[in-house]
């Protein structure tokens, strides 16, 4: 079904569900040196055991709450508190106390479920009985041999929901990214929004248009000297709680891309997963993956750096938006037709928060 919401008010930002998989780090960030990272307001220490398994513990010693991330790993995979030397195993159980042989049975720190998939380390911070690895959002392009690419992390000074809003409505490209991927046709093109209990999809096609600078370069990477009109697509796939993979690309106009034949074009996936840090900050993990010129490290680097520049424009706008929200606490958001996808995302998040008993508002039906 297609959502066509009225112009109505809605909550500006939501708290974050806890019964969900969030990315804590890129896989290469987690090693034998303890890493501190806060996810969903929970300070964590991340590291790997000697057999390579990632571990996530609460970053606070049972004794005096000293940050374990400032400690070091000992020979049997224990992490040692930097303050008084208490040691904990990967399950969070204290295995050593200084100057005493008897261990206090309450000497534990929380240990969280961790999964490694799609070049990321994922953590579950809610009810461990509900942690099902099958619920990790599909980001298979990240690890498929049929796709190539790379990405970075943005520490965004805004609530994670604002990033989700930004990614679910790409008409902002016409105004924020006018020199790279934006063009007038974005606002003019019709779109379709579909959804279920965990996902939302927004589909937009722009036929027989000029390719914007970013996509013209990519077409010429694959088809040197390309000229002419293109058919352009943006298919936004959201998966609970905060992963958005965007199927994007252009193909020579009239060669069948809308019907499924993309052979005369270039196809990319913008992979985005956003992990809340606090109510006003988040970790924005992203990558751009492509299915052409797979062996070219030059194109991989150019695309990563180019997309990073585009996202830098978003980062500036989102920070300003967060500051305006804090300066205008009584102002409610208004929603337009272009916000349909984002409103369904908000509905899914609100229902998850209600299930956890943590809902603060009722999101309007789209």
TrEMBL record:
Domain Rieske: 21-123
UniProt-listed InterPro entries: Cholesterol_7-desaturase, Rieske_2Fe-2S, Rieske_2Fe-2S_sf, VanA_C_cat
UniProtKB keywords: 2Fe-2S, Iron, Iron-sulfur, Metal-binding, Oxidoreductase
Protein name: Rieske (2Fe-2S) protein
Species whose genome carries this gene: Pseudoglutamicibacter cumminsii
